[in-house]
């Protein structure tokens, strides 16, 4: 089997698991003799087998790009389409492995947003070659931080605070096995409220649609609402949903909660939780927005009650929301769905 087929199969496996990758998030790569195969920005890993989502960047082009300061890097897919390479291209080059996968693992994020759990995390990952990095803005800055952290070290797993995981291996199948091992080690029991059925549900709120499922159960848990409304946990949340979410203590106070959110963040809320009623999305809501609410719920359901939470700084959230690279990713997602 050719290595590009292995890359496609690896990517599709990851992209079809919402516990690992959501919407257009995450990226994969393969270092070949001719250059770097990398996912195109805004595409979904779940489309890897059927879609034209990878481009090959020759090494001389990459070296020239790395020597400069431009963020955008473009190339052609095998189908001849001109696309942007993933914003994390430099990060993939910083890893020495032939195959690299960057995921937004729900289990991983539930650990790396809780600074008080670092000791237990070390125990969970004992025996693996891993390292923890503080949060750095995605793109070139993150790649530079990874290069600095890896100097003189052999590391197969990176955990990036408030962001996700990076895993490298020279064999695609071994990478999948390694990732499964990591995911297994990071799993913890869900919150007791995760499966709690709500007694009474608001039938509808004009202009909003219900998310349903576990998202409704989360709305019965006051500590979970604290975490959800306290800030932004990871980049893709604010990319697809804006900063944090609005939280209301009752249906009657919903409009007040929306006004408070807009006053604080300078934009209307796209997602909201109402205590005892569930999770809602402002219409029209994209498939990506629904995925990201489910991701938030899955993360919070794996955080112990009363945990100290590390949020992204407000300045970083504002930077991500306004970042042209992320606006491009949203545009591509909208065009392909």
The largest sheet has its strands arranged as 3-2-1-6-9-8-7
- What percentage of residues falls in helices of 4 or more residues? 40-55%
Main sheet summary: 7 strands, mixed
Low-confidence stretches: none
Helix/strand-derived category reads alpha+beta
Overall domain count: 2
SSE succession: HEEEHEEHEHHEHEEHEHHHEHEEHHH
Please tell me the overall pLDDT.
93
Which second-level CATH architecture of the largest domain applies?
3-Layer(aba) Sandwich
Brief write-up:
The protein is an alpha+beta fold and 337 residues long. The chain is 40% helix and 16% strand.
Give an overview of the whole structure.
With 337 residues, this protein is an alpha+beta fold. It contains 14 helices and 13 strands. The chain folds into two domains: 184 residues, Class II aldolase/adducin N-terminal domain (L-fuculose-1-phosphate Aldolase, 3-Layer(aba) Sandwich), CATH 3.40.225; 144 residues, no CATH class. 40% of the residues lie in helices and 16% in strands. The longest helix is centred in the middle third of the chain and has 15 residues. The model has no long low-confidence stretch (mean pLDDT 93).
Explain the layout of strands and helices.
Blueprint: H1 3-15, E1 27-31, E2 35-39, E3 54-58, H2 59-67, E4 74-76, E5 82-84, H3 89-94, E6 99-103, H4 106-112, H5 118-124, E7 130-133, H6 140-150, E8 157-160, E9 164-169, H7 172-186, E10 208-210, H8 214-218, H9 222-229, H10 235-241, E11 246-248, H11 254-265, E12 271-274, E13 278-282, H12 287-300, H13 314-322, H14 324-335
Helix pairs in contact: 4-12, 10-12
